[in-house]
Design brief:
The complex is a heterodimer of chains A (about 110) and B (about 525). Chain A is mostly helical. Chain A has one domain. Helix content of chain A is about 80%, strand content about 10%. Chain A contains four helices and four strands, in the order E-E-H-H-H-E-E-H. Chain A has a two-stranded antiparallel sheet. In chain A, helix 2 packs antiparallel against helix 4. In chain A, about 25% of the residues are buried. In chain B, strand 1 and strand 2 form a beta hairpin. Chain B is mostly helical and about 525 residues long. The longest helix of chain B is centred in the middle third of the chain and has 50 residues. A two-stranded antiparallel ribbon of chain B has the order 1-2.
Chain lengths: ~110, ~525
């Protein structure tokens, strides 16, 4: 037990064992894994396509604007979108985590 | 203009000096910087002269391939946001090594982490200092301020900020700089667009038909087409290698990571990355306007004749709005360099004082209160003095651009693997961390030494001071070591771990994950 201020902090193992904590971690890992795999795949597609299929990527779409430029530009939008999705998810996890800490404290006091 | 910036930042330092007593105040600004302020500071810490001058220059000379850097510099923040920022804030105190030392044996991991931090910071810093000196001697060529004076001036200012003002002064210098840099870039972009009658199509059309000198004759090139810098036979692999170093390196840059200790909690750490991404993203989108604009309006030939790639943005400003704007953009570039070197100095001195001096040499006990901060102040002074001397020794023509790439490569190959594994792998051990740090550090530095940045045969037209150090065929064909050294870092960390057992580290994993995910027991703001 660690004393913080005047209240006793619940033990790490107890929190770790709470079903609500398990649920939050599972959700978190799933979301982070999905987003990470997605952004890495989207990002590395750019050097792969530009590096190995330069003729395809140099094809012009509008004036001198080609696929390579459009795809590179879309990376910026992708990064912002993924960041936004993560922020929303993380806020939900934070609310769950507040509940978990309150629950652990009650269990510890009882 | 420039003097005003110096006066303002010294004022900030004076104000911060009164508030920088105690370790948390000195190293982490009391952890009271708000999310959006820290977002600005991260941008100010990150968008170096290499970005503003270097990337604009690369785009102006190599078109599309330069833009690939811009993309990587932004997307890299997703690695920071999703994987590193919050757990780091919730489990560490002052440095990157705190996270490793949480479960592992302190002395070996801190010693190696400090070495890696000092390596990254020094490489990065020398690149910035040489850049600053060269820039100032070009800009102020008429006023008699030479390269040596300029480097010394930058060095002394950065020492003053860090030694007296600590993290609080550094943070505000970075915030002021970020605002100036964004302002300057927006203005310059608007001028470029105005030049083309606010018709994006016209800008792209001009970029598609840039006249360049090649072998004595004029040819028209399409700067929107990939492949002007990363050419066959190894261009594609080199591009992938670069992309890996960028996207995994940012989350291992010590001077960026320690910024997350300056905010009150994990949530603010997250918010600061989000703000930083908005700013950094908009900035790098605008680098296209700057780079393509410089290529189309000024032209690579004229830029080469007036100081080379790094002068693209200032020359563009001069071409569009005359000498006053040229001076303004130059001052912004200078402020940019100052803010970045201050951030590097504080991360180097925090790591030396907190990791090496306090924990490796003195087992985590301070002989007298305030010792750690005093050591950090001395370190900042020494680091500053040494970088001034190295930068003067190298001289303004030294080819230092590869040092920035090397800093990213070391961060990606040595720091990132051990940070990720210590946060997400229960079986990770001290031996794994030491092997990972050592393998990543040595392989990335070693590969650079035998790469075309160091080895190669220069023709007789290359000036003496700009010649490569080893005049022989490069052993490693790529400019970027990441594609080899990053997997090596991970592999060594993995092998070191499975070849040893550390029950103490496994037991503490539960505590680490609960702390990282709930913020319980994290360092509080003061």
């Amino acid at each position: 037990m660690y004393a913080v201020g005047n209240s006793l902090m619940p033990s790490w193992d107890r929190i770790h064992g709470l079903p609500s904590y398990r649920r939050m971690i599972a959700r978190k890992i799933r979301a982070v894994a999905v987003l990470t795999v997605f952004f890495l795949a989207y990002y590395f597609a750019l050097p792969l396509l530009v590096g190995y299929w330069p003729e395809l990527m140099a094809r012009k779409v509008w004036g001198y604007v080609n696929w390579a430029y459009l795809f590179a530009f879309s990376q910026f939008l992708m990064a912002w979108a993924v960041a936004f999705a993560y922020m929303r998810h993380a806020d939900r996890c934070d609310r769950m985590s507040e509940g978990i800490l309150a629950e652990a404290e009650e269990a510890g006091a009882a | 203009m420039f003097l005003a910036f110096i006066a303002a930042t010294l004022g900030i330092t004076y104000w911060a000096a009164g508030r920088s007593t105690g370790a948390s105040a000195f190293f982490a600004a009391g952890r009271r910087i708000t999310g959006w302020q820290n977002g600005l500071a991260i941008s100010g810490d990150y968008m170096s002269a290499a970005s503003f001058l270097g990337i604009a220059g690369l785009i102006a000379f190599y078109g599309y391939d330069g833009f690939m850097y811009s993309v990587g510099f932004l997307v890299a923040y997703l690695t920071v946001l999703l994987i590193v920022a919050e757990p780091l804030r919730n489990t560490g105190k002052f440095t990157m090594a705190d996270v490793l030392a949480f479960r592992l044996r302190e002395r070996p991991v801190r010693a190696w982490a400090a070495l890696s931090t000092l390596t990254v910071s020094t490489f990065y810093m020398i690149a910035q200092m040489v850049g600053a000196g060269a820039l100032v001697s070009l800009l102020l060529a008429d006023s008699g301020i030479g390269y040596t004076t300029a480097v010394t001036g930058v060095g002394i200012l950065m020492i003053v900020y860090v030694v007296f003002g600590g993290m609080l002064a550094t943070t505000w210098v970075q915030i002021v700089k970020a605002v100036l840099l964004m302002g300057g870039t927006i203005l310059l972009s608007i001028l470029v667009l105005a030049h083309f009658g606010f018709d994006l199509g016209a800008l792209f059309d001009a970029t598609g038909q840039v006249t360049v000198q090649e072998g004595g004759s004029e040819v028209t090139r399409d700067f929107m087409t990939p492949g002007m810098y990363y050419r066959p036979p190894h261009g594609a692999l080199d591009l992938i290698s670069l992309s890996m170093a960028l996207i995994f390196g940012t989350a291992g840059l010590p001077h960026i990571l320690i910024r997350f200790y300056t905010v009150p909690d994990g949530r603010s750490a997250r918010i600061s990355v989000f703000w930083a991404m908005l700013l950094i993203g908009s900035f790098y989108i605008m680098t296209t306007f700057l780079g393509f604009g410089a290529a189309a309006i000024v032209g690579p030939t004229t830029i080469s004749a007036n100081g080379g790639t790094n002068m693209s943005a200032p020359l563009l400003a001069q071409a569009l709005a005359g000498d006053v704007f040229f001076a303004f953009i130059s001052a912004v570039a200078f402020a940019t360099i100052l803010a970045v070197v201050a951030g590097l100095t504080i991360s180097a001195s925090a790591s030396f004082a907190h990791d090496f001096y306090s924990n490796v040499l003195h087992h985590g006990r301070e002989k007298e209160p305030g010792e750690e901060v005093r050591v950090a102040r001395w370190t900042a002074f020494v680091v500053g003095a040494v970088s001034i001397l190295i930068a003067i020794g190298l001289g303004p023509d030294a080819n230092v651009a590869f040092l920035v790439g090397l800093a990213f490569a070391v961060a990606a190959s040595a720091n990132l693997p051990v940070i990720v594994l210590s946060l997400y792998w229960k079986r990770f051990t001290t031996r794994g961390a030491v092997w990972g740090l050592a393998a990543g550090l040595l392989s990335s530095v070693g590969l650079i030494l035998v790469s075309p940045s160091f080895m190669g045969i220069d023709g007789p037209e290359v000036a003496e001071s700009a010649r490569r150090m080893i005049q022989a065929q490069a052993l490693y064909p790529l400019r970027n070591p990441g594609i080899v050294s990053i997997p090596l870092g991970f592999l060594a960390a993995y092998l070191g771990s499975i070849l040893s057992r550390e029950p103490a580290a496994e037991e503490k994993y539960v505590e680490l994950t609960v702390r990282a995910n709930t913020g319980l027991g994290a360092e509080k703001a003061i």
